[in-house]
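TIM barrel protein
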Amino acid sequence: MALSAPPPPSSRPSSPSPRIRIGSAPDSWGVWFPDDPRQVDWRRFLDEVAQAGYEWIELGPYGYLPSDPARLAEETASRGLRVSAGTVFTGLHHGPGVWEETWEHVAGIAGLTRATGAEHLVVIPAFWRDDKTGRVLEESTLTAGQWHDLTSLTERLGREVRERFGLKIVVHPHADTHIDNAEHVARFLDATDPSAVSLCLDTGHYAYCGGDSVELIETYGERIGYLHLKQVDPRVLADVVTEELPFGPAVARGVMCEPPAGVPDLEPVLAAAARLGVDLFAIVEQDMYPCPPDRPLPIARRTRHFLRGCGV
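Structure:
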């Protein structure tokens, strides 16, 4: 039987071009906790994030938005919003003894995340000092054994979440955690399986800890699975470093600032991400806890306008 010739290139169906999809998160409205009197009501957050021109949101701290899937779907759809990811906090460096408790916590959030149609679960390592009070909770550096527990159990988490919920975990380097600066991020990535674990690059946290986001994207591009967009005010950061301030008080002082006033420059970061040739979410997260309730919306609108000027 003769084989027919392939169609000319012009007649072949073209695959969609890779996209960077922009969204925002409760964090940009000063929301850090499921319930806090200094935070805006979740209805106001949903109303305003839509008004600011965003289509995608994250769930934020579990319990802030409705945890009933049907109610959440109704509230987001009525505002033209879709969910890109949920977020979990884990302390897997504590070893196998915390696995069952961790999984119980993760499974509830992963189930809600999957029900929204999202495909990502942002995993933030445990803080070594409290992000609200600054109280030191444990040593700021890990032993070799703790590194092994952290990497091996994170791989297990990635596989379990994918098999049971169909989600991809993206681990978020974060100030005041054990995965923070360039050295620790590289150590973590080099010790984990790319098929199980990807990275959520938060440009603000990485700059806060002295990292170069463009260099990280160019070095570990195949591991970048998700982006958080934010900037750091270098003048405030210099004082934070000098005074050894915890992250919470640093945020209250304004260390995370409105683009384009800080670092890193987001246009080269987005250009480097676009060169990876893959679909990526880029979620705006300007830490502002606590903040006046009328402050977030104007900033969100200006930030969306700025990012359009960056081509996304």
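The longest helix spans residues 144-165.
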